[in-house]
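User: Here's a chain of 158 residues. Predict its fold as tokens.
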Amino acid sequence: MTSPLAVTTSSLQERAISQSGRTGGVLVPRLVAYVIDLSIVGLIGLIVAMSVSFLGLITFGIGWMLFPIVGICTAMAYAAITIGGVRQATIGMRVSGVRVERSDGGAPDGITAAAHCLLFYVATFTVGLYLLTLAIGVLRRDGRMGHDLLTGLVLVRD
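Assistant: Prediction complete.
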């Protein structure tokens, strides 16, 4: 039986990251990064949508069934490639001066980055969840939002 006061290595590492001061003040840069990234994903999504349109023409309409997933798949691929990449940040995050780390200080992988993106967009397009995740981010000292906590990621100033 473990003691209720036992502290895990993961929680010690999370505490070390939040006390390092690198997580303070990340909510506003996060918003700026979101606006920039939304524009970039929109442009990429437009190119993908045009490709799906062409695919639909040559497959006599069968390819058009891909339209419902174009947006979220584009966003998830963008996050997986950029956040899961060497720089650990999307283009908007790089402009805003933040990057993503795992709560243990390591680099996130592409699958975790894609899951983080999916949870973010689910929360964003569900008003109640968005308000909850935003409240969590405002109330926490390290600025981690709900989808950050669920995926074990943290945004830090670069």
